[in-house]
Each structure stands twice: as structure tokens, then as C-alpha cells.
Amino acid sequence: MSHESYTDDECTMSHESYTDDECTMNDESYTDDECTRSDESNTDDACTISNYGNTTLHIAARRGNLLIFEMQLALYNRAHRDPDKKNTNGDTILQSAIMGKNPEIVKCILDSTSVQPSVKNMNGDTALHSAARRGNLETLKLLLERSDVDLTEKNQLGNTPYDLVETYWVDSEEKQYAKEVLQ
Asked: What InterPro entries does the annotation carry (predicted)?
């Protein structure tokens, strides 16, 4: 669909609507049997619904509705689809949830999928870099509970998660705490 638009702050998609009660987009329903739009065949890209390679899981993770995300994840599991698929920016569903500032979905992803926080996107950012850039302390804490995150990992610009906290966070107690736990 070429008429979709996304913004960092809103993550909106023009001409498409989502409701909590039904998992539909413009009268195209998702079935329990095959995570696919009713007008598409069951291909590897059937769950990709944007020009940016975002799957229904990417969009649900970013929008922040836990119920919709869990429903989409169940559809993926039933259809034996891989939730680890990256979008064209190299973002996983974990990074989409982080960019949407949705710690409850981040926790769900960490607890119930094989998505690894150490996976890098096109900018060399891991999930920890993304959380540091977005300024969400709760998400940082969730990621730091894991043993598979590297505090010293640098992205393509040579920044560690600590550097991103220093750059993007407003001076506050949260910033001080984040810097302390990232050292």
C-alpha cells in the first residue's frame, strides 16, 4: 500500500484503522489460520503491510495496544511465522515497541519470543541503543535485567547506549540513574 505515512511521534497510518474489538484494516480481516490479509496469498511477505517492511507485529508493537499485539503474536505462532522479521530499517518488533515507548509490550516480547535484544538495525543500534535514544527508563530496566545486552556496544556513529542517554535525555534524576546503570 503506497498511501501509508508514519511519524515518529504518532506512528499513524493514513487510510487504515484499527480497533480493539476486531483485528481489521479497511474491511480486510486477519484470519486465525493464516496471518494474511484476505486479498493476498499465503507468501513469506503476507504479513508485511507497509512499504517500510513493517509487519502487523511491528505496527501493533509500536502502537502499544497489548491485546492487539498478543492477538497478532498468536496468529503468527499458529501460522508458524517468524516474529523475528526485520523491517527495511532493520528494526525488529522489539525495537518497534521501544520506539513506541511501550514497556509492557517490550516485556511481552522478551518473555514470549525469540527476538534477541542484541540484534542491530541498519544504524547499528541494538534494543538498548533504541531505549536509550527514546528516553524510557522502564524499558531500559527491562533490557538491563537480561544477560544478553552489551553496555559497551557501539552503533555505526560510535555511540554506546550511555552516550545516547547523555545526548537525548533531559537532565533529571532518571537521566542520572540511567547513566549510572549504563556505566
From this structure: Ankyrin_rpt (IPR002110), Ankyrin_rpt-contain_sf (IPR036770)
Give the dihedral of Cα atoms 102, 83, 22, 48; nearest 10 deg. Answer: 110
CB atoms within 10 A of CB 86: 18
The CA-atom distances, in angstroms, between 153 and each of 44, 56, 64, 133, 174 are 32, 29, 27, 14, 22
CATH code for position 181: 1.25.40.20
Model's pTM, two decimal places?
0.73
Same domain, 11 and 90: yes
Q: Which range of residues forms the domain containing residue 100?
A: 1-105
Which residue in the block uniquely carries the three cell numbers 492487539? 68
Rounded to 5°, the CA angle 93-99-102 comes to 80
pLDDT digits (tens, 9 = 90+) for 21-63: 333 333 333 333 333 333 343 444 446 677 789 999 999 999 9
